[in-house]
């Protein structure tokens, strides 16, 4: 299984090929969102909505073996692409790895510039929610 | 593209901010309902104050204080003229429309509204003209009533009249809706309210840049607007109030210019308008506010309105060809605001992708969540035009819209 940092490096490389073009970058993010596996309707509940996002983002977590598996969806295409990046990085990792993760890819790809401050805040809220899930899963295991 | 009365090239030259690229594309600024851009004369007035006249006002006897005070009070005269009141003392400087409304709620409301009294707002209001009244009603046990709107986003006048009674103490409505651009029949609203003895506050934040404000002709009791939507600086606005009402109202905040004499046994308050202007105001911004008013008056509000109507007609015509375009708010009388949705595309995504093409529009609920609830939507995309916008920009916007929509197919 790829490590959190190796996936981050892959993403940084992928975005590097877009040459900083704003429209192409957003288009690419949206495309990533379309590849995100569909979140079952039963998980698209108010309880699973990430607080702090302007758009609606549903995030669900479950344990498979000793790993946390994340599933997500959003009602906006760009946000769906953003959460897909986090799912790609943090899903199928152990709770400890998620809690200790140093997420740096968004700064390297200049995400703030192409999604703006409000969505960046939402993005931070998604990360926080994923860590809360990881913490809850860790507590459950122990 | 040059209207007989508006020389668009000459106007655009006065706005330095418009001549730049955003994300590698020429800026198209269609977020004017949120704030307008500032002409060079406003920027110059602001820097002139800080470069040459910076001083506190009303108390100093030195030359700079004198210059600053004169310029500050000249703006008050200009605002009085802009609103068509002969009484300069009826103009109070505020931080903006929101503070003007809060001031009336906190002073007139506190003194003259009690348990069981009714306040009427409309379903078209933005939060600034809802929340201060909710707070007041909560404190006083008064009741907030809401004028409903129809599917076109127009106030239902008959329903408004039914809400009025001798319990109605205040009606507070916007002149033009920020979210939809609906122009409300405020003159008629005021006349009906006065029949039952209610006072009326007009939120003219959106109206000030688009229609001639005339407090005498309207006979409104209060009117609030902001400088920054009329090509002026942020953090400054004006509240108009009829003299007898302002004089009867208790002070808003304590300290500074609002005091006549202070002793520990008691304080006497200054006369209007100073009674409501506690502390050191935004002096430079107030002074530059006059330059903005002069700019508008030089162009002529009728000319501005006529030109913006032309832009609206042109935009509406082009937007007919945009796949999945649904306007939100189709009132018969509208200012230069187009609020819309595109089938299958979230407003946030649309706003972000238009920004990538250098086009600034607003997306979201526009601080009018109850109105969005009425339409059962989360929000809209809002393009709002100003006197410095052009038909070429509208064409660019519509072409970009079509290109962005294709990305979702």
Q: Would you give an account of this structure?
A:
- The complex is a heterodimer of chains A (142) and B (409).
- With 142 residues, chain A is mainly alpha-helical.
- Chain A is built from six helices and two strands.
- A two-stranded antiparallel sheet of chain A has the order 1-2.
- In chain A, strand 1 and strand 2 form a beta hairpin.
- The radius of gyration of chain A is 14 Å and the shape is globular.
- The two termini of chain A are 23 Å apart.
- Chain B is α/β, with parallel strands linked by helices.
- In chain B, 40% of the residues lie in helices and 17% in strands.
- Chain B is built from 14 helices and 17 strands.
- In chain B, the strands form five sheets. A seven-stranded mixed sheet of chain B has the order 4-10-9-8-7-5-6, with helices on both faces. In chain B, strands 13-14-17-16 form a four-stranded antiparallel sheet, with helices on one face.
- In chain B, strand 7, helix 7 and strand 8 form a beta-alpha-beta unit.
- In chain B, helix 2 packs antiparallel against helix 10 and helix 3 packs across helix 10.
- The longest helix of chain B is centred in the first third of the chain and has 21 residues.
- The model of chain B has no long low-confidence stretch (mean pLDDT 95).
Structure annotation, total helices of chain A: 6
Radius of gyration of chain B from the CA trace?
22 Å
The strand line-up of the biggest sheet of chain A is 1-2
Looking at the chains present, what oligomeric state does this protein adopt? heterodimer
User: Share of helix among residues of chain B?
Assistant: 25-40%
Strand content of chain A: 5-15%
Major β-sheet annotation of chain B: 7 strands, mixed
Structural class of chain B: alpha/beta
User: Uncertain runs of chain B with pLDDT below 50, 5 residues or more?
Assistant: none
- The overall pLDDT of chain B, averaged over residues, is 95
Largest interface: A-B, 16 and 14 residues
The N- and C-terminal alpha carbons of chain B lie at a distance of: 34 Å
The ordered H/E elements of chain A are HHEEHHHH
Estimated structural class of chain A: mainly alpha
Please report the total strand number of chain A as a whole number.
2
Question: In one word, what is the shape of chain A?
Answer: globular
Q: In percent, how helical is the residue content of chain A?
A: 55-70%
Strand residue percentage of chain B: 15-25%
Strand line-up of the largest beta sheet of chain B? 4-10-9-8-7-5-6
Find the count of extended strands of chain B (DSSP E, 2+ residues).
17
């Amino acid at each position: 299984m790829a490590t959190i940092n190796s996936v981050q490096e892959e993403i940084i490389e992928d975005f590097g090929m877009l040459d900083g073009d704003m429209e192409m970058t957003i288009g690419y993010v949206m495309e990533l969102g379309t590849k995100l596996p569909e979140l079952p309707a039963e998980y698209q509940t108010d309880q699973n909505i990430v607080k702090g996002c302007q758009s609606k983002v549903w995030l669900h977590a479950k344990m498979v073996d000793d790993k946390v598996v994340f599933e997500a969806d959003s009602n906006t295409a760009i946000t769906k692409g953003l959460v897909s990046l986090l799912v790609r990085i943090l899903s199928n990792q152990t709770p400890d790895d998620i809690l200790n993760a140093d997420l740096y890819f968004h700064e390297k790809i200049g995400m703030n510039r192409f999604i703006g401050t409000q969505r960046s805040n939402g993005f931070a809220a998604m990360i926080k929610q994923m860590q809360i899930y990881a913490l809850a899963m860790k507590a459950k295991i122990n | 593209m040059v209207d007989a009365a508006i020389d668009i090239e000459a106007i655009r030259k006065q706005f330095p901010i418009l001549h730049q690229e955003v994300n590698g594309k020429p800026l198209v600024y269609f977020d004017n309902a949120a704030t307008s851009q500032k002409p060079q004369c406003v920027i110059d007035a602001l820097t002139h104050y800080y470069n040459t006249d910076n001083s506190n006002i009303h108390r100093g006897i030195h030359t700079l204080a004198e210059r600053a005070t004169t310029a500050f009070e000249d703006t008050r005269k200009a605002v009085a003229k802009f609103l068509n009141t002969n009484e300069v003392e009826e103009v109070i400087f505020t931080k903006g429309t929101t503070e003007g409304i809060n001031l009336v709620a906190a002073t007139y409301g506190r003194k003259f509204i009690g348990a069981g009294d009714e306040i009427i707002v409309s379903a078209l209001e933005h939060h600034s003209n809802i929340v201060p009244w909710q707070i007041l009603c909560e404190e006083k046990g008064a009741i907030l009533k809401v004028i409903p709107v129809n599917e076109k986003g127009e106030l239902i006048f008959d329903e408004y009249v039914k809400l009025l009674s001798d319990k109605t103490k205040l009606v507070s409505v916007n002149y033009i809706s920020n979210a939809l651009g609906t122009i409300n029949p405020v003159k008629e609203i005021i006349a009906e309210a006065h029949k039952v003895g209610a006072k009326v506050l007009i939120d003219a934040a959106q109206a000030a840049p688009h229609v001639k404000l005339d407090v005498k002709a309207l006979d409104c009791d209060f009117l609030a607007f902001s400088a920054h939507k009329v090509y002026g600086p942020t953090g400054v606005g004006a509240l108009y109030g009829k003299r007898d009402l302002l004089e009867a109202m208790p002070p808003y905040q304590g300290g500074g210019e609002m005091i006549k004499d202070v002793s520990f046994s008691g304080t006497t308050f200054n006369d209007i308008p100073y009674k409501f202007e506690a502390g050191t105001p935004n002096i430079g911004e107030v002074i530059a506010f006059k330059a903005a008013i002069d700019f508008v008056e030089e162009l002529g509000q009728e000319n501005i309105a006529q030109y913006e109507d032309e832009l609206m007609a042109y935009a509406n015509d082009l937007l007919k060809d945009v796949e999945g375009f649904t306007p939100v708010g189709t009132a018969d009388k509208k200012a230069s605001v187009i609020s819309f949705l595109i089938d299958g595309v979230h407003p946030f995504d649309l706003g972000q992708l238009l920004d990538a093409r250098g086009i600034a529009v607003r997306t979201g609920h526009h601080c009018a969540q109850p109105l969005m609830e009425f339409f059962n939507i989360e929000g809209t995309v809002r393009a709002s035009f100003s006197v410095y916008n052009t038909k070429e920009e509208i064409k660019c916007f519509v072409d970009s819209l079509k290109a962005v929509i294709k990305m979702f197919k």
